[in-house]
Amino acid sequence: MTKKETKQISVAFVCLGNICRSPMAEAIFTHKVKTLGLSKFFNKIDSFGTSSYHVGDDPDFRSSQTCKKHGVPVNHHAKHFEPKFFNEFDYVICMDESNLYNLNERIRSKTSTKNEARLFGDWNTDGKFKTIVDDPYYGGIDGFEYNFQQCSYFSEEFLKQELDVEL
Ligand code: 4NP
């Protein structure tokens, strides 16, 4: 069985607040999946924060502004990542080492899951961008633009590597 014939997959993107990086990653990834005609391979694409600080909030305006500038629609309200999501998503994909620690060492221990969170930059196999998607919250709009470029590239690499498709 090729990767293309396996069951539909689900992806959760995770950052700290779920208002800057992970809603951007979700929006970019969803847009690529749709425009590349790959929707049939997915049953769930969503995003969450390891903290509950911003639950219910719209994405940070710098994040949505950057996505809109590139023609990528954003439609999300912040949600808190729950331990059970390790069992509900095939891929739990986070942005930096702090997210990774929180997910795998703290949240994961509350479940019996074999699933493990990974960095989005794990799919950056040729090192074209920095592997870590840095927290842009206290910086300027340039940080959001770099996050956008990283997430776009990592999304394409994920699709190529996990679905075995040529883009
Ligand atoms: P995010 O960015 O994790 O990419 O959503 C942040 C959003 C809010 C805060 C930190 C990072 N905060 O400290 O409120």
List the helices and strands and how they pair.
Blueprint: E1 9-15, H1 21-35, E2 42-49, H2 61-69, H3 85-88, E3 91-94, H4 97-107, E4 118-119, H5 141-163
Parallel strand pairs: 1-2, 1-3, 3-4
Strand content: 5-15%
Structural class per helix/strand content? alpha/beta
CATH class: Alpha Beta
Listed once per kind, the bound small molecules are: 4-nitrophenyl phosphate
**Terminal CA distance:** 21 Å
Q: Write the CATH homologous superfamily.
A: Response regulator
Overall shape:
globular
Tally of contiguous helical segments? 5
Low-confidence stretches: none
CATH architecture: 3-Layer(aba) Sandwich
How many strands, which pairing sense, and closed or not: the largest β-sheet? Answer: 4 strands, parallel
- CATH level-3 fold name: Rossmann fold
Mean pLDDT across residues: 96
Q: Measured on Cα atoms, how large is the radius of gyration?
A: 15 Å
Estimated helix fraction: 25-40%
Element pattern in H and E: EHEHHEHEH
Number of strands: 4
The main sheet orders its strands as 2-1-3-4
